[in-house]
Amino acid sequence: RNFGIVVDGVRTSAMVPYADMLNHYRPRETKWTYENHKRAFTITTLQSISVGAQVYDSYGQKCNHRFLLNYGFAIENNCEPDGFCPNEVPFKFDLPWQDEIFDAKSAFWVRDGHGKLIRVCVSDNENTSFAFACLRVMVATKEEFQALSGAGGTGAVALPHTVKDIRFPMSLRNEKAALTMFVGMINDKLAAYPRSLEEDKVLLAGDSLTPFSNERHAVIQVAGEKEVLEHYKTHCQVALELLSFDVNDDAAYIGRHRELRDSGCSPWILKYCSLDPMGTIGMCRRMERRRLQQAQEGTSDPARPHIV
Q: Which domains does the chain have, with CATH numbers?
């Protein structure tokens, strides 16, 4: 392990064996730097440390796959003080080659790079947003994609230039299809493991795995991946259930949302499903109500222009 330091204004790396002997702990209890006036690499405590106690360093906020790859260990409870867990799972997103508008989608898809290998954690960060954006494009119909790209001549403004720019749902239908595709991808990943998450938990709780062994660290790593996958599987299932509610019956929807909240549903899932202005399903429901209203108006008066 090397340490990134600045010596006389020049950024460089240093091998510091004694510092490298410190074990990892979060939140950090020490900080390190190179002090030019001392011509020395220094470690400073950030809190009181008892005489004879072990002194720890922090290797930073990282997914267990990086801890295991770079340092040879994995952390069983890899959570920050605020509850955030940086463990991730990679997903590779590809356009279905048999899509009737594959060429048009592909031209849009590659604007921010061909590869779409995205690591997601239990959060609603940039990577999560990017993953859902990819799914929406993958399942978009010709009409939805034309509206997205402006090819339909709707006159819409602020159209996304790249996949990553897609921050909001396209339609209720599209979001359902995206969630359905995502849960299928998740199930495929879960099925590829030889054990379930529950079986991993039993292994870790027992005494068959030698403490600090490679086998135990490997089980900790894959269990962390499965926890992320199970979270997003639940996310998709809950969201699909709520998307099936009558878009004109907000009372029933709110009642179910409260039940989920009271049962301890993840705050990230509740946020996605919120009827608030920025809640994804709330937007889907409003778009669907508008679409149904415009369709009804168009049926009652064919001569009246409307947006589809």
A: 3-60 (no CATH), 89-299 (3.90.1420.10)
